[in-house]
Amino acid sequence: MGLLAGRLQRIKPSPTIAMTTRAATLRAEGRDIIGLSAGEPDFDTPEHIREAAKAAIDAGHTRYTPVDGTASLKRAISGKFARENGLDYAPSQVTVGGGGKQILFNALMATLDEADEVIIPAPYWVSYPDMVLLAGGRPVIVECGIGAGFRLTPEALETVITPRTKWLILNSPSNPSGAGYDRAAMQALTDVLLRHPQVWVLADDIYEHLVFDGFEFCTPAQVEPRLKDRVLTMNGVSKAYAMTGWRIGYGAGPEPLIRAMAKLQSQSTSNPCSISQYAAEAALTGPQDYITESRAAFQRRRDLVVAGLNACPGLTCPTPQGAFYVYPSIRDLIGKTSAGGTLLDNDEAFANALLDEAGVAVVFGAAFGLSPHFRISYATSDDQLREAVTRIRRFCENCA
């Protein structure tokens, strides 16, 4: 009998965290490293949110809360869904966890039996398939390449649904590609889902407010109200309000699912941090100016990076609709050799050589289920991005 559970053999450590850790190690050794691997806004949490947290501490709100969120935060979340998405959720249909990741994990753990299938469009956020595997389910990966704008088509969705399909995970705008589904594209998918009543939808809306060029965000339950009773709408404060370290995510859906998720959380982490909950409430109910300001900064950075990468020999970089990532193709570099002697036979070799030879940390596309690509997070300063693009261009020019 071994010590470690067999289920751990199904999964791998997060590649994004691994690359960020490797970059930090090289930086600690004195290397000049530009880190573009972590999906984390570089702005400070807005002041009124920080002040709300301090006030909560001073008021003594430092004890246990209800297991899946305070009543006042749940009311604030219900208000957010009504105000911004036209969705009517009672507080009893809302759950709060220690980050959006916990909401996703709880939902899958609470609902998946062995061999249940979960449809995941690729490229995908790295944790989706591993969460499904930990819960005993089977990820069904659907490649959505650059020609499809990195978006799932209704035709592709129809072909992979089976009697074992339990969930479709839909992330818009997407990590890693930044691709978003407009209302017409979303309606086409929900039309398919209406024909398959066994399929639930896990809508990961964490990048809802980071959209550009007039793109209008929409979420499945909003577009097709007839699906609402089998949709879990997930969101959080981490990306929209620069609160990644505060660890507050939330979801809303049918009450039986929400109760099941709370039951699971009661036997795992119990309540999210009490102070963070008060801060999140201030984020959702207070001034929203920060969102407009940060969105403008991210759009400027996106344009800088897209233009710079498209000037690099061998790279093709589509313009994303949202989030703070780009997902360029390196197809024309595959088979070449870097100046340092690395054969670029796949995107992982490219990312490692770029870090070793140019001092730029990115994440290779295979981690997101679609190669040959790499992901850049442009959630850092304009100066750092300009320097990074210069280094990437020099690296590409020296590949032969």
Automatic annotation (TrEMBL):
State a single Pfam family of this protein. Aminotran_1_2
Which segments constitute the Aminotransferase class I/classII large domain?
A: 32-392
**CDD domains (alphabetical):** AAT_like
Does the keyword Transcription feature in the UniProt annotation?
no
Which cofactors? pyridoxal 5'-phosphate
Source taxon at top rank: Bacteria
Statement: the UniProt record of this protein carries the keyword Amino-acid biosynthesis: no
* Keyword terms of this UniProt record: Aminotransferase, Pyridoxal phosphate, Transferase
* TM annotation in the entry: none
Enzymatic reactions: L-aspartate + 2-oxoglutarate = oxaloacetate + L-glutamate
| GO molecular function term, any single one | transaminase activity
| InterPro entries in UniProt | Aminotransferase_I/II_large (IPR004839), AspAT/PAT-like (IPR050596), NHTrfase_class1_PyrdxlP-BS (IPR004838)
PANTHER family referenced in this protein's UniProt entry, alphabetically: ASPARTATE AMINOTRANSFERASE (PTHR46383)
**Which named protein is this?**
Pyridoxal phosphate-dependent aminotransferase
Q: Which organism is it from?
A: Paracoccus marinaquae
